[in-house]
Every structure is written in structure tokens, then in C-alpha cells.
Design a protein that fits this description.
Largest sheet of chain B: 7 strands, mixed
Structural class of chain A: alpha/beta
Distance between the termini of chain A: 50 Å
Strand order of the largest sheet of chain A: 4-3-2-5-6
Structural class of chain B: alpha/beta
Helix content of chain A: 25-40%
Strand order of the largest sheet of chain B: 4-3-2-1-5-6-7
Number of helices of chain B: 7
Radius of gyration of chain B: 15 Å
Oligomer: heterodimer
Number of strands of chain A: 18
Shape of chain B: globular
Shape of chain A: globular
Helix content of chain B: 25-40%
Radius of gyration of chain A: 20 Å
Distance between the termini of chain B: 32 Å
Largest sheet of chain A: 5 strands, parallel
Chain lengths: 413, 162
Amino acid sequence: MGTISEKIFSRAAGTEAKANDFVLADVDYAMAHDGTSVLAVNAFKEMEVEKVWDPERIVIPFDHIAPANNETAASLQHEIRDWIKEQQIPNFYEVGEGICHQVLPENGFALPGKLVVGADSHSCTYGAFGAFATGVGATDMAEIFATGKLWFRVPESIRMTVEGELGEGVYAKDLTLYLIGKTGIAGATYKAVEFYGPAISRLSVSGRMTLCNMAIEMGAKSGIVPPDGKTFEFLKNREAEPFDPVYADPAAEYAQEVCYDAGDIEPQLACPHQVDNVKPVGELEGTHVDQVFIGTCTNGRLEDLEVAAGILKGKKVAVRTIVIPASRSTLLAAIENGTMQTLLKAGVTLSTPGCGPCLGAHQGVLGEGEVCVSTANRNFRGRMGKGGFIYLASPATAAASALSGEITDPRKV
Amino acid sequence: MKGKAWKFGDDVDTDAIIPGRYLIFNTPEELAKYTFEGVRPEFAKKVHENDIVVGGSNFGCGSSREHAPLALRGSKVSCVIAKSFARIFFRNSINIGIPVLECPDTDRIDDGDELEVDLGTGVIENKTKGETYQATPLPEFVREIVDKGGLVEYSRDLVSKR
């Protein structure tokens, strides 16, 4: 009898696990990227272990500073490539394949009932497929590389239900930002959030990834959508191995149960410099914008690019607008169905699939005092460059704002 | 341990501790040059060995980058005290040997206060103000990890004793 998290940890630890128990669990898939693998590999080497526990269960995409922006980054990536070869890790995704949190689902590593751990805080994205997925640091990742195991405290869970239906021009990102605004930046710290209700069921797989991606922004250890027909449809012919979907028992105990109505939600933006500083677009219309960025593991999928293209079709952007598809396959699909042509004709700039300027390393960082409307997941001071101001929004709000050069309600375009 | 307080507010995020563009550096010494660059530009130059970083609630929220506690280690900070910590930062700090203490009274501590911290009991003495606060002491095995310098050193030690 338990929550999704309790049941997944019970299986992974081989013992009945309840919330707040400490368990040593077997990790199903471990992920590190170019940004975090260097420290993880260093720690692994210091542990004086020769071979990783299971090369097939380690996934390493290069996405954070990809392609490398200077000699230092290039040399580090070179070292990691050598280590990957030496350890015979088959699941290495080179520069341009895409963002880790897109690449893992596309290649069937984000699976219902699995325990997936990533050396990246947004690893909670895989909860969109009913996995228990969470982020850890480099030393913990090294421990997994060496042993395949990690200790966890089984989290308590919050049951978050969203009734109703999102209105016209309101998207998964607006719902996500609204829920973060209500919960607060630390409102779910140490807990897992299970999402239920008709508004969640209606979300596409892509929309559920947006939602679970930002669970960490309310402090959560994991955000989980119970798998359904849409999940299984997406996973068909992708799954890296067989899986057993896990659902909460009716008698499962929750630390908190909250309910919201999707019908109440307008397009939302998270204002500088904190993700829970969320306001409806009506309060921000007219705010000057210097740059628009559409992409990232939050909102760089085909559906997101299509929404932006729908708004930009036949028009011209008024400010520099950077579009970065979440993966090579996203980019290819957007080329094949004409979305990319529409975006490029509207004046956007296209960059290599990857994290882009989200973490402030390259490909569109901000100058002092500049304002960016971004579809990413963090707007902390200095994140996209010292002195920049980041407003987080849906691809629709971002595209509408690109047309006018000021924050604009996409329902009015 | 004894040191001067560097006081921060609530929700200090890992981008504030070490901006993403410095993730290409991977040693405490290199990272220390940029600690708190965007929010306290004077920190890296003026911090002294054993100084103590003091925050409000949810310290270390955001990215899982272990570069954040590593930068603090490179700055020779002796410990971090906050009302509460974000989960990943808390775990990363212990794993690389930085003591992190939860204390509800950090509002009473001001920038520059001289503090003395007893990791064993969790007692924090504010020498400047003549006050004493109680932090939650770290469990013994966690303190052992910190004393050894981190999880790698701790595990290696365990293995060698087998």
C-alpha cells in the first residue's frame, strides 16, 4: 500500500519502503552530461574503482556547452569522451543530439516504474513517464557509476489535482508556472509531487514533460504523472527495456492534498529573479523586451515550436529571437513539417540543439540590464548573464512578445 | 570553528553561488575566484579562511552543480548555516566535506558578526552580539564524512578497514 514513490523505492531497494525510510536502492538508469560528468568522473577515479557497474545503464549526452565555446570546455569534453570509450559506455550522445532531458525520453530510458537518477536538477522531467526521477550531484553520481546503488530517504508525497480544462492560448507552461506560484520555490522541498485530474490527463506527453521538468522549481525531489495511454503510445518501439507501470494505491498516504482549477489560469510569467514570482500576463503587458528565447528542456519540443510558428507565421519578429530545438529529432521533425521554415522566415535565429543560453554559458547570454522572455525554467539573478532580467513564459507568450518587442498576451495576437 | 559571518537572504540559488559559465572549472581553487560573483562581487577577494556563510531559508536551491559547494570549499569557508537548505545542495555539501547546519535563528546574525560553531553540539555563539543559538547537530556518521573531507575519502577509508 503506498504512493508511487514508495512503490518504486520498494522495488528498487528490495524491501517494503515507506515515506521517510532510508533505503539503499538499485538505480535503473544514471545520466550525467558535459557540465557535470567531469566532476563525477574525477570522483569515480578517486574511488579507485576500475570499471563502472553497468555501462549499458549509463547515459551521457553532451548538451550544456555544446559545441564547446572555448579551449577549456573542449579539452574537458575530450577527456570525458576518452573515459566513455575506455568504459565502453554505448549510450553516449554527441554535441547536437539534444538536451539530456529530451534525449533520454526519446531513446526510451525514461520509463514507468523505473528509478532514474541524473547529475542534473531537472532530471525530474522523466516523472512525466511515471518514473521516479531525481537530480544528484557529482559525488553521488560517482557512487552510482561505481556501485549502481545510492542511498535515499523515501520522500513523502503531495497529491496535486488539477480539475477542468486550460483555456484558449493557455498552455502546460502557464499551468506549471501557476502551480509553482501557488506552491512557492520551497513549498515541496524533499517531497515528491503526484499530479492528477482531468487537466493533467489532457496534457500531451510534451506538456507533462514541461510540468515535471519544473517540479524542482517548487523544491520537489520528483514530480510524477501516472502513466496512461498517451505515455504508452509515446514509448512504443522506444523502450530500452520492458517496464511495469506503477500506480498509487487508493489507501496511499499523502503529506498534503491540494486541488486547483485549470479554468482559473491565464497566461503566466515568472518575473525576475525568482521562479515563484509568478504573475498573469495582464499585469506585465507592455514591459520592454530585448531578446526572446524559445527552447530548453522545458519548452523546446516540436509542439512548442509549432505553437510559436502558429503565432509568427507570415510576420516578422521585432527583437532578436533565438530558437533552439530540444533535440536533433525535434529539429528534423520541425524541418519536415515546415515549422522551421515558418520560424526562419519570421526572422528567428536557429542554434544547435542543446541547452543554449539557458545556463548563461553561450549562444545568447544577456548584456547588463537586458530583458529576455525565455521559455526556460530558471530566472535567477545572473543566470543568463550578469545584469540580465529573465521572464519565464510559454512559447506562445514568448512568440507574441517577439512580434511586439514587449510582453504581450498571446490571446490578443 | 571560528569565523566572520557573510550574511545572505532567503533562496540563495546555485547560480548566485557560482554562475553557469564557470562550470568549465573543476577545482575548488579555480572556482573560488568567482564565488558569489554576481551577488557579492567583493566576496572572492575579501573572504578569509574559516569565515562562515549564513543564509535564510532554502539555501542552495536550483542546479545540482557540485561546483557550488566546491567553490565555497575553495573559498576556505568553514561551514554554512541557514534556516533550511535545498535538498541537492545539502547532500552535495556533505559529500565534499562542507558542514551545513540548520538553525532557525539566522535572522539574528548580521554581516561581519564573529561566530564560533561547535559542530558536535550544534551550538553557535555570536561573539559580537553575546548571543547563543542552537542548530540541529549533524548525525555522527555525517560528521565523520565531513571530517574525512567528503564521501570519497570516507568510503575509501571504510573499504581499507574491511
